[in-house]
């Protein structure tokens, strides 16, 4: 039987470093904190079971985000998730502007949501997002541009934002 | 929207305060359960292996039993007496020889009552009444004859019959008397009628060699050499006669014999020639 000392150190470290980021990625996908936390737990469980070898911390984080996206997609496909009618996450505790922006981003199609989140929250470049999402950089650039355009129409922002390719 | 607004908003989104601790505990419990799962797998594997072993054992025993039966049947067929070929039409004309009747009176009459209607077989007194059926009326039974069913029961006769009564009482009334055969007086003089000889040359001669020492039966050329034994010399064999064993092998003659050589080669030397009979006119 294992004990806490035998728990892989890298898993513990990853849990400390990346859990919040992964919850936010999953939340961007699922729009629900409870579901996001459940998915994140599954991600760390997979991390523990598979024990992948990483080149560096960035590689490790990218793998965790990729796994979070995949598990979030899987949860979206499940019958029980589709059949339920959840109460929207209460974000009223956020300042008004932040609440509006966040609601606007969550209202985007998920193919725009994730690149927007990874770029504006995690600070990833288009190339990095392309690697994580296993897509072409040009495609990611298009998703970002379209997402920003929709957001601009809704909340009128992003005038001064630039996307570095 | 400014980049900082979204980042700030997302940063403020509340998550469970004990998420890390709860996740950590869950991972611990998952790891703790893992060895148990392995144990269960091993148990299941052992059970499955036992089940497989039982299945394999069952099949092995079954196949072995079938093999033993096959070998036994083959051996019995090998030991069965050689039966000379007979035309198929004769077989069709013959009545079926199989049949069975209930018999619980069987043996030699050791004593007969004064009126001649009762006799003793072993320790059993059997009474024959007007109700007693004489002879077998089964469809496959032989035709009634004086030889098989004599009218009088005499000491020494061989009887067989059936009674529905309890033979343990020592005295019964016969329901059926199938046979009442008088003992054969010249039995010792008669030779036994059964016997067997190995035969693998059998049929009608279709061709004879110019020297007259070889003949063809079916697809097999058979050569008669000086070493070939002519006739049957067994104790039960019939006395040699010109009729059964002609000196010359002629086309149309019916021959039977035996060779130790492989008949599938198409040409053999005869070890024995039992019969060489001219076709009946």
TrEMBL record, chain A:
One of its GO terms (molecular function) is sigma factor activity. GO terms for biological process: DNA-templated transcription initiation. Residues 18-78 form the RNA polymerase sigma-70 region domain. GO terms for cellular component: DNA-directed RNA polymerase complex. SUPFAM superfamilies: Sigma2 domain of RNA polymerase sigma factors, Sigma3 and sigma4 domains of RNA polymerase sigma factors. The keyword Transcription regulation applies. InterPro entries: RNA_pol_sigma-70-like (IPR039425), RNA_pol_sigma-70_dom (IPR014284), RNA_pol_sigma70_r2 (IPR007627), RNA_pol_sigma70_r4_t2 (IPR013249), RNA_pol_sigma_r2 (IPR013325), RNA_pol_sigma_r3/r4-like (IPR013324), WH-like_DNA-bd_sf (IPR036388). Coiled coil: none annotated. It comes from the Bacteria. Keywords: DNA-directed RNA polymerase, Sigma factor, Transcription, Transcription regulation. Residues 99-149 form the RNA polymerase sigma factor 70 region 4 type domain. Belongs to the sigma-70 factor family. ECF subfamily. NCBIfam families: sigma70-ECF. This is DNA-directed RNA polymerase sigma-70 factor.
Automatic annotation (TrEMBL), chain B:
Keywords: Membrane, Transmembrane, Transmembrane helix. The keyword Membrane applies. The chain crosses the membrane at residues 56-76. This is DUF5666 domain-containing protein. It comes from Paenibacillus radicis (ex Gao et al. 2016). The lineage of its organism: Bacteria, Bacillati, Bacillota, Bacilli, Bacillales.
